[in-house]
Amino acid sequence: MAICALLTEALSVFLYREWGLTEVDIRWEFPFQDYGDTATPLAFHLAKRLRQSPVAIAERLACEVQKCRGVERCDVAGAGYVNVWFTSSFLIEELGVVHQVCSPLPLHCDRAPVIIDYSSPNIAKPLGIHHILSTIIGQTLGNLYVHAGYPVVRWNYIGDWGTQYGKLAVAYERWGGRRLPESFTLDELLALYVRFHEEAERDVSLESSAQEAFKKLESGDPKLRLIWEAFVAITKHANDQVYQRLRVHFDVGLGESAYEGKIGSILDEGKRKGVFREGERGALIIDFFQENLPTAVVLKSDGSTVYFTRDLALMRDRIDRWHPSAILHVVDSAQSLYFQQLFATARQLQWEVPHLEHVVFGRMRFADVEMSTRKGTILKLEHVLDEAVDRAGSVIDQHRDTIQTDDRNALAEMMGTGALVYGILSQNRKMDIIFDWDRFLSFDGNSAPYFQYTYARARSVLRKAGGEGAIANVASLTPTERSLVVQLLQFPSVLQESRDDRMPHKLCQYLYQLCQAYNAFYNVDPILTATSSVRDMRLFFTSCTASVLRTGAGLLTLQVPDRM
Fold first, then answer.
1. Residue 98: which of 550, 457, 561, 524 has the closest Cα?
2. Is 138 in the same domain as 226?
3. Domain total for the chain?
């Protein structure tokens, strides 16, 4: 909350002056209205440190806060909470900050970029529903950083190298029917890959043929290179169409293959520094005794490269070329050990690394029994998007008396994709993500349709009024007005917290609460029929609400309709 910055600054000065305390984490909460516009539990956190009771500390804090500009009153509640109420005029005055925050900050070119690595599908396989987790979490984090003025490099690190392409090459040669490689669809490439594994169960020699084919590909075999390039192009073209529907884009699309020629220097450095050692049958490995992690292979015994070593080459290149302040890997929880080993290897090599972080997310679980039982098959993201749009269309048809639109299909696409994306982003990424059609498409809860409907309602009010309203001086605010204004003023801090914690669900939760506050205000306080100054002020509240919802939607990759 922007206005809490004033209180934080005052308390920071007071804590240093009275007790010599510095760098104290002062947190503000937003309780029910009866307990203030904001509150802090700071006294509880200081009690042990200062060897005083929380109530005694809270009373001194409250006296200091009471002196701040805009504070109407400050009370001590319970065992040591400090509750704060602001004057109505001060709250309204501060709303101008909200409109400013809705516009992205200029790019700070003097800042080192943040690299965000997300999506990262494998070539020759369609995007599955599980890919949506990394894809939209990563895109949203990138949007949050860009909005705050940070240089960002959005990176789709494609899995376009490895023994699996030897398998695909063998499958193409044996069952491709002499067709040109570029004539295949992505589904046909997947069918070839699946057939390879089926045939390999009966003919074990196929695995060694695949390994040999990949070694030839690594060595630059011209025929295999042409086949591989065609399959990469087919996959990228198909994936791009899905990314466009999700409003996802990347700045860099370099995959594993781009680092095949950069691994030698990494291996030489590791051996020279005594970090890599020879393992069984001549393989090259690294131990993690200090970190208490299992050993990792950096080069196979047959001389083939591995994903781990290519990732080291990728990290080295990113550091040398981009000089980032941070590298964020948006990857599921199953890879936690892998990233611990990767980051530990960089430390053992004594590299000067930026902030490295594995932005972890849980697995997807399905409330729909039919979807959850499709084990062993790829549930294509494209098909799930189509189903989401179909279901949204049915919802529109069922609510024809309340939903207004000039383009049903466009609205269905907006609602369907939005419901899917928001339904996932609104959940804590560190937990398993529950896929639930009924909840995603509901108009009554924390969902995209409710969010989109509230935005359309606000835009409808502004169209009927023929203006955006203006700030007005009023003696007091009604309870629903006050609740809405206080909610709006939390937007700047929510953006920062969602970005710094890498938690998109915090932004979703805030937007849901804003929708609730606006709808309560809309249903209780007349807007268009109010007296002149009050009408202007309530229109301004409506305009602020619409701006925040539109900005939040963009950050979450959603679209919002002007009519619904």
1. 550
2. yes
3. 2
Confirm whether 108 is domain-assigned.
Answer: no
CATH of the domain at 77: 3.30.1360.70
Q: Which domain holds residue 355?
A: 114-257+315-364
pLDDT per residue as tens, the chain (564 positions): 567 888 999 999 999 999 999 889 898 888 777 788 899 999 999 998 999 999 999 999 999 999 999 999 999 988 889 999 999 989 998 898 898 999 999 998 889 999 999 999 999 999 999 999 999 999 999 999 999 999 999 999 999 988 889 999 999 999 998 899 999 999 999 999 999 999 999 998 999 999 899 989 988 899 999 999 999 999 999 999 999 999 999 999 999 999 988 999 999 999 999 999 999 888 999 999 999 999 999 998 888 778 899 999 999 999 999 999 999 999 999 999 999 999 999 999 999 999 999 999 999 988 775 554 444 467 899 999 999 999 999 999 988 888 888 899 999 999 999 999 999 999 999 999 999 999 999 988 899 999 999 999 999 999 999 988 888 777 789 999 999 999 999 999 999 999 999 999 999 999 999 999 999 999 999 999 998 889 999 999 999 999 999 999 999 999 999 988
Would 243 be classed as within a structural domain?
yes
**Does residue 124 sit in the same domain as residue 76?**
no
| Structure tokens given for 501 | 């914690």
Spatial distance between the Cα atoms of 467 and 482, rounded to a whole number of angstroms: 22
Question: Same domain for 240 and 338?
Answer: yes
Residue ending a domain, choose from 86, 106, 141: 86
Given CA atoms 231, 234, 237, 239 in this order, what sign does their dihedral have? negative
Nearest CA among 452, 454, 393 for reference residue 423: 452
> In this structure, are strands 114-117 and 152-155 parallel, antiparallel, or unpaired?
parallel
Please tell me whether residues 143 and 13 are part of one structural domain: no
